[in-house]
From TrEMBL:
<dbReference type="GO" id="GO:0004553">
    <property type="term" value="F:hydrolase activity, hydrolyzing O-glycosyl compounds"/>
</dbReference>
<keyword id="KW-0378">Hydrolase</keyword>
<keyword id="KW-0119">Carbohydrate metabolism</keyword>
<comment type="similarity">
    <text>Belongs to the glycosyl hydrolase 43 family.</text>
</comment>
<feature type="site" description="Important for catalytic activity, responsible for pKa modulation of the active site Glu and correct orientation of both the proton donor and substrate">
    <location>
        <position position="146"/>
    </location>
</feature>
<keyword id="KW-0624">Polysaccharide degradation</keyword>
<dbReference type="Pfam" id="PF04616">
    <property type="entry name" value="Glyco_hydro_43"/>
</dbReference>
<protein>
    <submittedName>
        <fullName>Glycosyl hydrolases family 43</fullName>
    </submittedName>
</protein>
<keyword id="KW-0326">Glycosidase</keyword>
<keyword id="KW-0858">Xylan degradation</keyword>
<dbReference type="InterPro" id="IPR006710">
    <property type="entry name" value="Glyco_hydro_43"/>
</dbReference>
<dbReference type="InterPro" id="IPR023296">
    <property type="entry name" value="Glyco_hydro_beta-prop_sf"/>
</dbReference>
<dbReference type="InterPro" id="IPR052176">
    <property type="entry name" value="Glycosyl_Hydrlase_43_Enz"/>
</dbReference>
<dbReference type="GO" id="GO:0045493">
    <property type="term" value="P:xylan catabolic process"/>
</dbReference>
Length: 333
């Protein structure tokens, strides 16, 4: 008997279907601009690079932007940015995000620079679907992966960044890189993502980055050994009923979790799981309100029959209870 999952059955039982099937897409960052829903995903390809813990097999080269209509049908608007058009970048166009300010669109993306360090870049366009023109250099002081931009109601924009293993976060302490740094011991506080307010022109950090604290029920930082709850990658922030919700992936335990706070800087207190593990190693999401409902955007590898770097973006409604807790979704229930 084979241990291989029955992908046809999983596809039938799935709570949602891929938004597009002509290309593989992942890491969906969703935003509503001018009433219309846009998704900024990674564009997965098989670059023929062998699997390793560094994620080198995630060899993405460009980005496409999707828009979604009221029937949940997605349109692919083609290539919005290619690595060959980014002067400072060499490879691995990983999970991006976007923001709008004063009619301009800012596309944020991680990539390895020519020294193979992950940095965060920004590219600017006049349309939400691109094309975007990359700035000549990456954002000064940026490092690691998975930028997520949150616009607060006062018009301030904050960027959240960080990812472990291939995302290099474990090699930084106090925002300084050292190749000798490794993951903390299991009883030590877990590694944290960082946050920085963006400058008025949206092209730089307006302040030195600071760490995002995720606390347990006793007010203590989550520990490195708490793999079911501690941060790994895929930051996202949204606001619900005047509270800030910081959500993220736990990586090696494959959960999308969330924590709640009173400020965009945190601290955030762990509140539970949003999504149980999907097919594929990675889990990465975003959350947005659209048409009076709240939606989770996520990905899985059912369409590629389990190929972890060939993923498909999906969306499913999420619900809050009266206390503001998010009901956990089971992707194949
Ligand atoms: O898509 C490449 C990487 O996989 C992302 O940056 C991570 O969040 C994980 O989804």
């Amino acid at each position: 008997m084979s241990n291989e999952p029955n992908y046809q059955e999983l596809a039938q039982k799935a709570i949602s279907q891929p938004l597009v099937t002509h290309i593989y897409t992942a890491d969906p960052s969703a935003h509503v601009f001018d009433g219309k829903l846009y998704i900024y995903p990674s564009h997965d390809i098989d670059a023929g690079i062998p699997f390793n813990d560094n994620g080198d097999h995630f060899g993405m080269e460009d980005y496409h932007v999707l828009s979604v209509n009221d029937q949940l049908e997605a349109t692919d608007h083609g290539v919005a940015l290619h690595v060959k058009d980014v002067p400072w970048a060499s490879r691995q166009m990983w999970a991006p995000d976007a923001a709008e300010k004063s009619g301009k669109y800012y596309f944020y993306f991680p990539a390895r620079d020519h020294e193979q360090m992950f940095r965060i870049g920004v590219a600017v366009g006049d349309s939400p679907v691109g094309p975007f023109i990359a700035q000549p250099d990456y954002i000064k002081g940026s490092y690691s992966i998975d930028p997520a931009v949150f616009k607060d109601e006062d018009g301030s924009y904050y960027m959240y960044v960080g990812g472990i293993w291939g995302g290099q976060l474990q090699q930084y302490r106090d925002h300084e890189w050292n190749a000798k740094h490794e993951l903390p011991a299991k009883e030590e506080p877990a590694l944290r993502p960082y946050v920085a307010k963006l400058s008025d022109d949206m092209l730089e950090f307006a302040e030195p980055p600071r760490y995002v604290d995720i606390l347990d029920e006793n007010g203590d930082l989550l520990l490195e050994g708490d793999n079911d709850r501690r941060f790994f990658e895929a930051s996202w922030v949204h606001k619900y009923n005047d509270k800030y919700y910081f959500s993220y992936s736990t990586g090696d335990t494959h959960y999308i979790c969330y924590a709640i706070g009173d400020s965009p800087y945190g601290p955030f207190t762990y509140a539970g799981r949003i999504l149980e593990p999907v097919i594929g190693w990675t889990s990465h999401h975003s959350i947005a309100e659209w048409k009076g409902k709240w939606w989770l955007f996520y990905h899985d590898s059912v369409l590629s029959e389990g190929v972890t770097h060939l993923r498909s973006v999906k969306m499913a409604e999420i619900r809050y209870d009266a206390a503001g807790r998010i009901e956990t979704l089971k992707p194949y229930s």
